[in-house]
Amino acid sequence: MSGVCPKCTAKRPLIQEIHSAFAYQAPLDALVLRFKRGADLACGRVLAQLLAERAQFWPRPALLVAVPLHRSRLRERGFDQSALIAKDISAKLGIPYQNAIQRIRNTGSQGGLSATERRINVRSAFQAKDLSSFPHVVLIDDVATTASTLNACALACLRAGAKRVDAWVLARA
Question: Which of 66, 85, 122, 143 has a beta carbon 3.0–4.6 Å from 152's, enabling a disulfide?
Answer without folding.
Answer: 122
